[in-house]
Amino acid sequence: MTIYNFSAGPAVLPKEVLKKAQAEFLDYANSGMSVMELSHRSKEFEDIIKTAEQLLRDLMQIPDNYKVLFLQGGASTQFSMLPLNMAKGKKAYYLVAGSWGKKAYTEAVKLSKTIPFEPICLASSEETGFDRIPEFDNRLIDPEAAYVHLTTNNTIEGTSVYQLPETNGVPLVADMSSNILAVDYKVSDFAMIYAGAQKNIGPAGVTIVIVREDFLNDEPALSSMLDYRIQAENASLYNTPPTFGIYMAKLVFEHVTSLGGVAKMEELNRQKSSLLYDFIDRSDFYKSPVKFAKDRSLANIPFVTPNAELDKAFNQAADEAGFKNIKGHRSVGGMRASLYNAFPLEGVKALLAFMKAFEEERG
């Protein structure tokens, strides 16, 4: 039985990447050591991290005046690092379009009890279950604010920001965890981008931060480990970084490059997601909870049947048929197909055949 992994993260990785990692696992570059055994100060690892950075710079066309960091702690640690470093004495705006955007804002509010800054919810779609990207009047933004924060893809609710909002000249910061390298954004539109690796880049454990040099903090943060400038000045080697995760990221960057880069990945992702969205739109049995088609995610596609009992039956039958981890997030229920870069087109076609058969049987 063929297994298709629809997990929202840690997610499916390219088979070619896994095979290469397997081949090099015991002996990397004739060193006689596994990548997992290499010192982060060794020549071998220096080559790995520098190559990974250059590959990412080339893929995302990152300008020279941006630093690229490989950090730990996941995107959730950035919820704290960002205001700790960048917001002191200023306002910080948050566009809350999903659960992760809400967590980022909530963490900022918590920090504001001890750090002097003012987090402001710019707009939220929580009242309608995060079924859309909320709009706002950019004239409400104080031009002296530290930043405007948004999440480019809402993994749980299945919405995305494609048209970046006007921010009244205030720097834009994005949590791009679930659609980095999957949608072809222009890096120079952002002061900072951060992303957990476990969707499109590699295994859990690595966090990518891309930050414009003039946006870096001037004053020291409370902790050296949580200080962007210290991490940048030490080229991500202030302490032992997640060496194996960075190596895996390098392999993924090489793989995406070989396929044609980020623009090609977006084209393929639009092809995959369109097949599923078109099927859902034609069906009287399945429905998308996202209100507007323009907000639909290419990466995470939630859908439901007419009732919760049928959702439960679908998830059970899908799992038994080899469609793994398609159950929706516990906070929203239903189903969710995560079609990240490494997810194959054949898997989408197989899912459509299964969905059609289930509808004919239960509809």
Automatic annotation (TrEMBL):
GO terms for molecular function: O-phospho-L-serine:2-oxoglutarate aminotransferase activity; pyridoxal phosphate binding. InterPro entries: Aminotrans_V_dom, Pser_aminoTfrase, PyrdxlP-dep_Trfase, PyrdxlP-dep_Trfase_major, PyrdxlP-dep_Trfase_small. Keywords: Amino-acid biosynthesis, Aminotransferase, Cytoplasm, Pyridoxal phosphate, Serine biosynthesis, Transferase. GO terms for cellular component: cytoplasm. It catalyses: O-phospho-L-serine + 2-oxoglutarate = 3-phosphooxypyruvate + L-glutamate; 4-(phosphooxy)-L-threonine + 2-oxoglutarate = (R)-3-hydroxy-2-oxo-4-phosphooxybutanoate + L-glutamate. This is Phosphoserine aminotransferase. Residues 3-351 form the Aminotransferase class V domain. It comes from the Bacteria. Its cofactor is pyridoxal 5'-phosphate.
